[in-house]
Amino acid sequence: MREYTPFESLMREMMSQFFEDVVRTREQGIGTRVARLPVDVWVTDEAVILEASLPGVQPEDVDVTFDGDTLIINATLPEPQVQGKSVLRERYHGPVHRALTLDIPVDTDRAEAVFRNGVLRLTIPRADKARPHKIQVKSG
Fold first, then answer.
1. C-beta separation of 105 from 126 below 8 A
2. What was the pLDDT predicted at 130?
3. What is the structure's pLDDT at 91?
4. What element of type H or E holds 121?
5. Do 70 and 81 form a contact (C-beta atoms < 8 A)?
6. What residues contact 50, with CB distance under 8 A and at least 6 apart?
7. Neighbours of 52 (CB within 10 A)
8. pLDDT score for 80
């Protein structure tokens, strides 16, 4: 599998999300609102790590699956319980979704998901063949 430049990866992700949003809207019916879940992703020599904020969500209400090389996260952010009349509402509540195609081979069987203080943290170990390794150069 070839490595993509940062620009190619960004464009691929944007196009994937666009078509995914179109399909999801048709499947769920017009007017159904599903927000894109913002995530932070970084790659180390050992793993791909993802974090997403899901305030008010219970761990058992977060669905994390792999479909081939695509990581899919679904959850529903609860509606805030407020007393009195709402004057300003900027925080989203309702279903959130994110699908990310991982361009790095990972070991999904060893993936771990930890939910703490409203933050989901996924640690997905890189496949052994995808881990960088240094080759010692010997003198001749």
1. yes
2. 65
3. 82
4. strand 119-125
5. no
6. 39, 40, 41, 71, 100, 120, 121, 122, 124
7. 22
8. 81
**What is the pTM (predicted TM-score) of this model?**
0.70
> 125: domain range?
35-80+92-129
Dump pLDDT digits (tens) for 46-91: 999 999 999 999 999 999 999 998 999 999 999 888 788 877 878 8
92: which residues sit within 8 A by CB, 6+ positions away? Answer: 35, 77
Any idea what the CATH number is for the domain that residue 108 is in?
2.60.40.790
* Number of domain units in the chain: 1
Question: Is 46 part of any domain?
Answer: yes
Is residue 117 one of the residues assigned to a domain?
Answer: yes
If you write DSSP's letter for every residue of 79-92 in order, what string do you get?
PP---S--S---S-
